[in-house]
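Lab channel / #folding
Pinned by the channel admin:
"Please post every new chain as: sequence first, then the structure tokens as a reply. Keep commentary short and put observations after the output so the thread stays searchable."

First post following the new format, from NK:
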Amino acid sequence: QVQLVESGGGLVQAGGSLRLSCVASRIIFAIYDVGWYRQAPGKQREFVALISSGGISNYADSVKGRFTVSRDNAKNTVYLQMNSLKSEDTAVYYCHISVHWGQGTQVTVSS
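Reply from TO:
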């Protein structure tokens, strides 16, 4: 069974940085696009960033210029570098491959 495990979340002050990781197992990782999504309390899950199998990335307007998505196919891992964090970035962050979701990692930004 495919497994996605996110890590790297935590509590950070506004303006700070975090790097999230998502490690995939039991999947041919390199051939898939990988997405990051987030869900804040009381809100719907929303798209954050995506990196294609070829390494092309795109971002939600709300995070452009602050977040960077990257991947290391040798490690079956995708990263989300988050800089200049804002309180509105507070959410549970999930990675997504095909029909599979991780369990999420909590990011809390204090103002």
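NK: The mean pLDDT is 97.
TO: also worth noting, DSSP finds no helices and eleven strands in the chain.
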